[in-house]
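S.,

Sequence below, as promised.
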Amino acid sequence: MSGATRPGAALPVVLLHALPLDSSMWGRTARELRARGHRVLAPDQRGFGASPLTDQPPSLDLVADDLARELDRRDIGAAAFVGCSMGGYVAMAFLRRHPHRVRALALLAARATADTAETAAQRRRFADLILDDAARGPLLAGTTPSLLGATTRAARPGLLARVTDLAAAARPQAVAWAQRAIAARTDATAALDAADVPAAIVIGAEDELVSVDEARRTAAALPHGRLVTLPGVGHLAPLEAPEATLEILTGLLARAETAGAGAC
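The prediction came back faster than expected:
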């Protein structure tokens, strides 16, 4: 395949951001991985950052195929995929649609199962409210703090302010589209079960949106999945625990490169 990783070359890495943030959340991680010789792609997903929104019906499959085309454009055949929250759901959609291009997988604060009917309805209600000018401010004020763990909120008010600013800057139409796409996603358990690649499942012990039990079930679905629980961390490990996140990813990439060398 064009763009396939050469034996001995550092594996390319794709970093997929959380909702309602953008690719800037990966700034430190991307710099550190590039310094270690990895080619890093950290795209803004549809409607976020510099990426335009679509007029197509909400679907994570569309986002996954966007990513495949971007990899083609950059002549990257296969890579390690790292997704946080929404980014994890995009990574799982990509794995289902383009499994041969995934050499390693890290899912941070993301569950393998589809939403329950109740959770999907809550997401769609959120999408409706974020488009309401009167409701948007109170909605963001009430929900954004839950993206960080209680320890982070208490000890790092500057990070809470940064995440709040990013959430407020996100285009409401993009947030609504993404929430509806996530609500409509399918169960990814079968795709994970078929993924014969090194994998890491990362969960914050103080995550208020995805439970440790859910993360444990996701890790169990992967033949080579390893669960890492980070104490004092909530939903956004790359921002709350950047050093620990980098250590996890560095270990995962080393496993993937060793497995790749063994297959040559």
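The mean pLDDT is 94.

Coffee later?
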